[in-house]
Amino acid sequence: MSQNQKALFIIFGGTGDLAYRKLYPALYKLYKENYLNENFAVIGTARREWSDDYYQEIVTDAIDDIKVSDQHAEEFASHFRYQSHNVKDTENYRTLLHLANTLDEEYEIGGNRVFYLSMSPSFFGTITSHLREEGLVTENGFNRVIIEKPFGTEYENSNELNNEILESFDEEQIYRIDHYLGKEMVQSLMTLRFGNPLIKHLWNQKFISNMQVTLAEDIGVEDRGAYYEQSGALRDMGQNHILQIVSLLLMDEPQSYHSEDVTKEKVNALKNLKLLDSQNIKDKFVRGQYTTSPDAPGILDYLSENEVNEGSIVETFIAGKVESENEQWANTPVYIRTGKRMKGKSTRVDVVFKNDESSLFDADELSENVLTIHIGPTEGLALQLNSKQVGHVFNTEPISLDYQIENSIPDDYEKLILNALQGDKTSFVHWEEVAESWRYIDAIRTAWEADPSDLFKYPVNTNGPKEAYELLEKENHHWFWE
Ligand code: NAD
Hints:
Layout lengths: L6 E6 L4 H16 L7 E7 L5 H11 L7 H8 L2 E5 L5 H17 L6 E5 L6 H10 L9 E5 L7 H12 L7 E3 L7 H4 L1 H6 L2 H4 L7 E9 L8 H26 L8 H13 L9 H4 E7 L25 E6 L11 E6 L6 E8 L16 E7 L3 E9 L7 E9 L7 H11 L8 H20 L4 E5 L6 H8 L9
Parallel strand pairs: 1-2, 1-4, 2-3, 4-5, 5-6, 7-10, 8-15
Antiparallel strand pairs: 7-11, 8-9, 9-10, 11-12, 12-13, 13-14
Helix pairs in contact: 1-13, 2-3, 5-6, 6-14, 10-11, 10-14, 11-14
Bound molecules: nicotinamide-adenine-dinucleotide.
Nicotinamide-adenine-dinucleotide binds next to helix 1.
């Protein structure tokens, strides 16, 4: 069967950062691998007045590092057209319709359309209703809408946003991107959990002491101060990437890999999360904000970053204890942690197993067995076990079995765009997952808003305030990655 996908992409926000850094390189890689060949075209739209030639130059520039040859890059870019377009202006959609139909014919695309909304979500409703009303949705092919985070800032407005889109497209046609779901080791979680009897049968509260999800960034807010002031770490990373990973860790085995079955189990896992309130928030969640450190001269504190409000109490770090109502996870928390200006850049899951009673060893002689899933920047697995020290003694020592993926891994966006072309929604986020995630996050936000006194400062280049360590220490746990 041919792997060639036929599609016309219409990218709203074609002059933007995401399109340049991620979408054009991803499309080029798919072109290079023959997933896209003759039967595809791209219309980039945005407000700026660009010509087709200039747009094609930009696209060529975006793939400069990965191109096979100048000629190959030019061939690829020749499939791109540009239309200057204010998304609020109905007239523009008519011109767009004409261009779309012309390209559909020229490249024999057969009516398949992918509308990529790489723009502020405040425009999603306007764009989708115009697409439907002005006839850009075809009868003869598939019509899919890809949208980017942030999907609202709380349940209420995300529900409104969703309803606006649903007026023009069905849930089936909506592909909500969480690019962490395109990461190799996140995609590997189900295989790891359900494809290995060795792991599958131990994956419950009887054998697992706790799990730790860390999304650490070593950079600050950079030029995104204004955005971050509206978001903070909880919304920026917690509602989406972290809870997506948590749902994959806690869900029951799905009936199949089909998106309906996977979604069902992920939604159940999210529904089972114990909601927090102002009574227990201080016990279970810590928030922090980075400040200067004598060890890192020249690195600004959050309050001195561009476009950050004076005296802001926006959190740049969170750590929390996430618990499930599901009995198989009774007393086995998932600790989560994310922040800016942490010690290093690392995305990882550490699964800490319980130590057994033993007549041979004292409890403190054995290290914990820990399975680490390295999600980024390197991808792989590590398993910490106890072994006998080599030599004439019978002491124990921890050893680590390591596996690091060395093959080149397709980029997150490359995988997700291909999945969208193939109509495979397993690695996209269903509305119910978004809704359940906001339910959990909103409860924390509301509890924090009731009492803003507990924002702890942490020096840059550290893994958060001491309170984030105490969160685990009071339960005789500790962060495996320090
Ligand atoms: P950007 O500001 O660089 O680009 C926005 C685009 O929208 C530009 O092309 C601009 O011309 C266009 N635009 C704005 N108003 C318009 C209007 N009225 N009519 C027509 N075009 C208009 O933003 P970005 O960084 O490319 O991000 C796009 C979306 O993706 C945002 O929702 C963002 O939150 C999300 N996102 C971005 C990244 C990233 O790495 N950049 C990562 C995750 C999610």
